[in-house]
Design brief:
α1 links the parallel β1 and β2. The chain folds into 2 domains: 104 residues, 3-Layer(aba) Sandwich (Rossmann fold); 105 residues, no CATH class. The chain is α/β, with parallel strands linked by helices. 58% of the residues lie in helices and 12% in strands. The protein has a 4-stranded parallel β-sheet with strand order 2-1-3-4, sandwiched between helices. It contains 7 helices and 4 strands; from the N terminus they run βαβαβαβαααα. The chain is elongated and about 70 Å long.
């Protein structure tokens, strides 16, 4: 018999209105148990209402401790419900058997890889936001006079170059996921669905489409 310890996390009450709400997580876990687990026993369930940026959440620590002491599997809805820190995910994988309901067949290596990619994406978004604010500040110093045509053209050229670099970097971070899947014959539609299921978003923060996956693959090939 497989023993499970279930862990849920929401950051705020507002998340009850989103796909990361407690009810949505409970549905994901129930679907996993009904579809992928045979002859199982749920030892206990734990819930934290805290940010994923902290690993010392009391109920999280209690869930991990119980799973470790009973030789049970820690089950969560999505990877980021445990942590947004790749080092914490790596530590957890070494400590207990760990499963993610939305990724029923993911092994330890894949879980570590998804966590690393998610962390890189967050860092990229932070840097992009900082760069945009700095650019706006620099443009603001020229408000005292009209911008010349040559200046507008130069600004456009630099912006285009910066966007290309950012797009190349973003595509490169997805290489380890989408290229092996495509080489294995997975359809563009299935790859897009997999990325959306795991919470990955496009460079513009939108859901993935087959066309978006194809564009990234073309960029990686070039």
């Amino acid at each position: 018999m497989t023993k499970f310890v279930i862990y849920y996390r929401v950051s705020t009450k507002r998340q009850g209105e989103s796909g990361l709400g407690l009810e949505a997580q409970q549905r994901d876990v129930a679907l996993y148990l009904d579809s992928y687990a045979d002859n199982y026993d749920v030892l206990d369930e734990f819930t934290d209402v805290e940010s994923g940026g902290y690993s010392d959440r009391p109920n999280y620590l209690a869930a991990v401790a119980l799973a470790e002491s009973k030789g049970a599997t820690l089950l969560v809805s999505k990877l980021d419900r445990v942590s947004r820190d790749v080092e914490e995910i790596a530590r957890l994988i070494k400590q207990v058997d760990f499963r993610v309901a939305c990724m029923p067949f993911a092994d330890k290596f894949q879980l570590h890889l998804y966590a690393a990619l998610a962390e890189q994406e967050r860092d990229f978004i932070k840097k992009r936001t900082k760069a945009a604010l700095q650019s706006a500040k620099e443009r603001g110093t020229k408000l005292g006079r009209p911008t010349k045509k040559e200046e507008l053209q130069e600004m456009g050229r630099k912006a285009g170059e910066a966007m290309k670099v950012q797009a190349d970097q973003f595509a490169e971070k997805l290489r380890a996921i989408i290229v092996p899947m495509r080489n294995a014959g997975v359809s563009l539609n299935s790859i897009a669905e997999a990325l959306n299921t795991q919470g990955f978003r496009t460079q513009r923060g939108k859901n993935w489409t087959p066309a978006g996956v194809r564009n990234v693959l073309i960029r990686l090939e070039s």
